[in-house]
C-alpha cells in the first residue's frame, strides 16, 4: 500500500493546483478513458461486496486483480492527482473523493450549477451502505459537503468548509437520490449555504454550512 504522505509529490509540484497546458481536447479524451476504467473498478467494488462465490475462486480472483494492480503501478504519479487547469480554463480533479473521474470511490457526483445554486442526481449502490439498505451518514455528509462547497464557490472563488451541520430526518435509502444546495447569505469571507438530500418521498437529510474564503485568497477570479 502506498504511503499516505507524499513529500516527493510536493518536491516536483504534483498535487495542489497545478498549471498544465495539455490541450482541452486531449484532456477530454483522457478523461473519458480514466472514467471508463474507474467505472469498471466501481463495478468491481460492487461485485466484491455482493459476491457469493466460494473461497477458492475468490483467492484466484484476488491473484488476478493483484496482477492488474501491478500493471497500473508501472506508470504512476508520485502523489495524489490534485487539481490541474489549462489556459483555456478547463480544470480537472480526477482524484476528487466525490466527483473525480478516475476515482472509483466517488459515486461519482455530476454537479449541475443552476440559477438558485447546484443540484445533482446520484444513484448509490451497496458500497455506500451504513444501516441495512440505507446510506451511511458520513457518505451523506460527504456528498452534501461537496455540493454545498461547489455552491459556495460558484466556480469563481475558493472556499473551504468551516462548519457543516447535518440533520438526518429519516433514513436515506440506497438508490436514486437528488441533492440540492443554495446560498442563504454572505458575510464578508463567509458564505452560508443550505443543502438537502431527497428520495422520491421527500427530504431525508438537511444541512447548513459555513464556507470560508481563506484569508489571502482572491475574492473572485472572474
Ligand atoms: C469546487 C470544489 C468544491 C469542494 C467542496 C469540498 C469542500 C471541502 O471539503 S474543504 C475541506 C474541509 N475544510 C478544511 O479543510 C478547512 C480547514 N480550515 C481552514 O482552512 C481555515 O480554518 C478556514 C479557511 C476555514 C478559515 O481560516 P481563516 O481564513 O484564517 O479564518 P479566520 O480569519 O480565522 O476567520 C474568518 C471568519 O470565518 C469564521 N470562521 C473561521 N473558521 C470557522 C469555522 N471553522 N466555522 C465557522 N466559521 C469560521 C471566523 O469566525 C471569522 O468570522 P468573522 O469574520 O465574522 O470574525
Automatic annotation (TrEMBL):
Belongs to the THEM4/THEM5 thioesterase family. This is Acyl-coenzyme A thioesterase THEM4. SUPFAM superfamilies: Thioesterase/thiol ester dehydrase-isomerase. Keywords: Apoptosis, Cell membrane, Cell projection, Cytoplasm, Fatty acid metabolism, Hydrolase, Lipid metabolism, Membrane, Transit peptide. GO terms for molecular function: hydrolase activity. It is an enzyme of class 3 (hydrolase). It catalyses: octanoyl-CoA + H2O = octanoate + CoA + H(+); (9Z)-octadecenoyl-CoA + H2O = (9Z)-octadecenoate + CoA + H(+); tetradecanoyl-CoA + H2O = tetradecanoate + CoA + H(+); dodecanoyl-CoA + H2O = dodecanoate + CoA + H(+). InterPro entries: HotDog_dom_sf, THEM4/THEM5_acyl-CoA_thioest, Thioestr_dom. Residues 133-205 form the Thioesterase domain. It is a peripheral membrane protein. It is found in: Cell projection, Ruffle membrane; Cytoplasm; Membrane. Its EC number is 3.1.2.2.
Amino acid at each position: 500500500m502506498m504511503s499516505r504522505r507524499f513529500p516527493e509529490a510536493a518536491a516536483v509540484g504534483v498535487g495542489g493546483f497545478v498549471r498544465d497546458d495539455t490541450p482541452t481536447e486531449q484532456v477530454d479524451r483522457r478523461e473519458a478513458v480514466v472514467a471508463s476504467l474507474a467505472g469498471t473498478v466501481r463495478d468491481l467494488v460492487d461485485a466484491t461486496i455482493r459476491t457469493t462465490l466460494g473461497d477458492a475462486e475468490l483467492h484466484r480472483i484476488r491473484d488476478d486483480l493483484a496482477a492488474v494492480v501491478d500493471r497500473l503501478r508501472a506508470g504512476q504519479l508520485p502523489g495524489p492527482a490534485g487539481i490541474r487547469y489549462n489556459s483555456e480554463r478547463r480544470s480537472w480533479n480526477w482524484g476528487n473523493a466525490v466527483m473525480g473521474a478516475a476515482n472509483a470511490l466517488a459515486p461519482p457526483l455530476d454537479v449541475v450549477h443552476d440559477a438558485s445554486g447546484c443540484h445533482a442526481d446520484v444513484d448509490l449502490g451497496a458500497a455506500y451502505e451504513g444501516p441495512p439498505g440505507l446510506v451511511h451518514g458520513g457518505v451523506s455528509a460527504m456528498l452534501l459537503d461537496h455540493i454545498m462547497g461547489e455552491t459556495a464557490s460558484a466556480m469563481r472563488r475558493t472556499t473551504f468548509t468551516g462548519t457543516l451541520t447535518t440533520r438526518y430526518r429519516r433514513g436515506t435509502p440506497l438508490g436514486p437520490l437528488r441533492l440540492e444546495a443554495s446560498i442563504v447569505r454572505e458575510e464578508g469571507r463567509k458564505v452560508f449555504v443550505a443543502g438537502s438530500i431527497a428520495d422520491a418521498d421527500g427530504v431525508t437529510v438537511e444541512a447548513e454550512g459555513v464556507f470560508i474564503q481563506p484569508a489571502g485568497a482572491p475574492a473572485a477570479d472572474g
